[in-house]
Automatic annotation (TrEMBL), chains A, B, C:
This is Enoyl-CoA hydratase. Signal peptide: none annotated. It comes from Promicromonospora citrea. Pfam families: ECH_1. InterPro entries: ClpP/crotonase-like_dom_sf (IPR029045), Enoyl-CoA_hydra/iso (IPR001753). GO terms for molecular function: catalytic activity. It comes from the Bacteria.
Length: 282, 282, 282
């Protein structure tokens, strides 16, 4: 059986636009958190793409116009996550972000909706990001849980937005809308929401027509000059898990869940604004 | 006696907005030059912050709406400056900028008014910069004195504005207003003057609420990927002092002082434009 | 004989605006490709500038308002190109771009018109770039020839536009107009076409007045923090020549020439859009 016959993802959809252009659509209602099944799906996809010499470009979009990826599923059982098949020695999530950042295929995020925490880290691990001007909210809110970003944001933002704006994004933990994300370089460009899909599809179709080996070589040089050594990323993960294993953080997460975290409601729509007050309610 | 009881600064004011949020206001009339007393004040503040495990954020603003920090006081007696207490082996000014760039607390410049030379270097050594859209003039004018920037601008600008714009800022020695400074990444954002104070205060209050240790860890990773090794900065300082020790530069400084440098008048308001012609008047 | 008496360029003009400010105007009708003679001219100019201790700034503009530099002349005889005098062990074109990026004089591109492929690489090797808002089209189209950029674009773009936008420029191979090039940092600034010349001339006159040694020292520090080691660039060149030596690429170039490449006509005006379809017409 080929990969396409075999692949049966639970929380994303794979659309073969052409042999050289694939589309992945995140789809984990109610708000597209990154949970166990989505990680399993992503890891299987990454394994295929690591061996596939045909696919030139993969677009990642969302089935939910309000939530691109809300964040990591805080209810995931860590042992199950770590038991998922992996291709590196890294923790489950870093295994995904590091591998994503090293694929031969060009990875393009088409961001519409809320994209916080691990969602932001996932798009930062892709090669480029296009965002809806009206409907984007990008944020790294980990510091509200007393933690650094565990999947590499502090390693990837500096080469996109520079030192001062990286400080602001990670220490401010606020939402960045499309216009500000573009101004800072957090995304390549913000496009009017009505134009985003056609823009990204046209761009991806164009890239899908190039020679596969040429794409690999172009990316190799850029990666050589812009990627940190892989070994940096486990350090982030270790620091993150050390911080959130503190019982006080566990209590914060409990309070957040009671107030509607991971549900399609006001807390998640406005999480960056509200998380601070809830976290500091001791 | 605690630091707060003991600290009696001459050319700046320290306001304790809360135990975790301090505000430093530069105040050295007539135009906020960085002189001996302000350096003494800054060094005492840095020493405290290097040991303080409570303060999460320090905002630096100015008591003078026209001059944030005009520049280094060209009349400072070097021997006295070097005799000030220091925590590094570096020259007096580099001791300040390097230590500023390494604090645990988040350092935020709220820039309103003229910020040239060492003033620009000081804000570049902070973690982030917000500026008045209408009232900001940022510049590095050292090349008019035949010199490189002595306090690290050429080491810090590249990670904010990239190679080409660093070249333009340091070789053009022109004023950058708020809009252009934002476009280049010289500041994080330029805000309408009427909104600047509230924006920065709100941001700082938010950051002041996070866990101290989490802030330290976030900054540690960002610093690891965006700071040059400390040892680079003495090289800048040596090159600066070698250049300005030339008698021709001394004569230029004399001419500038005769024409109103360090006074609240037309030369200082428009120094970047006028310094070239005066420097080249031989 | 002095250099100025001896220098008799074929495809560019040298104007001595002052002893410290030179202007180079590309002039190789019909569309300013970089051919054998222009490379010979540039190498002679670089040799002079490498030894000249007076010239502080060199502006590079174009005699053709529509084409700044169309691209490399695809009909150049490689053996003749490599036989041109060179100052490095690198291939003919890399010899030019690496040396351009290391001059004592400040190099300023005044971009008006189409600037693709090696044209874009040449301006990326300069210290800064100012562009006509209305008349600029910057692009790296090499991937349409199954190739990486041979003259260093993938090494120089990251420090200007960051990782994500470098990916987009090199993998999308599309035209960037002045506004988008400014937004990304591909150029320092885009100026209204009517203001470009005066802006650049004024800036260059200003820089031309500084102390030569101070310029050298400022550039030395910036270069130290923003230039890749020279040894990276031959790798790009090797990968480029390996790719284009493929007979399939030769056939593509033949088709492009038949359809009007290197002529002043619709294909060259719109090369970035059209090259993909022609390249993929097998």
């Amino acid at each position: 059986m080929t990969f396409l016959e075999e692949f049966n993802p639970k929380h994303l959809t794979l659309t073969v636009e052409s042999p050289t252009f694939w589309r992945v659509t995140f789809n984990n209602p109610p708000i597209n958190v990154i949970g166990l099944e989505m990680m399993r799906d992503l890891k299987a996809l990454l394994t295929e793409l690591e061996n596939n010499k045909t696919v030139n470009v993969v677009v990642f979009d969302s089935a939910d116009p309000d939530f691109y990826i809300a964040h990591y599923d805080v209810t995931v059982d860590n042992e199950l996550a770590e038991a998922l098949p992996k291709a590196t020695d890294y923790t489950a999530w870093v295994d995904i972000t590091v591998r994503m950042s090293k694929l031969d295929a060009v990875t393009v995020a088409a961001i519409r909706g809320i994209t916080r925490g691990a969602g932001s880290e996932l798009v930062l691990a892709m090669d480029m990001r296009f965002a809806s001007l009206e409907k984007t909210k990008l944020a790294q809110v980990e510091i509200a849980l007393n933690a650094v970003t565990g999947g590499g944001a502090s390693g990837r933002l500096p080469s996109l937005v520079g030192r001062g704006r990286t400080m602001e994004i990670l220490l401010g933990a606020e939402d960045f809308d499309g216009a500000l994300a573009e101004k800072y370089g957090y995304v390549n460009r913000a496009l009017p929401d009505a134009e985003l899909d056609e823009f990204v599809s046209r761009f991806a179709r164009r890239v899908s027509g190039w020679d596969h080996q040429a794409i690999v070589e172009v990316k190799e040089f850029i990666n050589k000059y812009t990627r940190l050594p892989d070994g940096e990323y486990p350090l982030h993960s270790d620091a993150y898990w050390a911080a959130v294993s503190n019982p006080e953080v566990g209590a914060t997460v409990e309070r957040l869940l009671e107030k509607g975290m991971q549900e399609r409601g006001p807390l998640e729509y406005d999480l960056a604004t509200k998380i601070g007050a809830i976290a500091q309610q001791r």
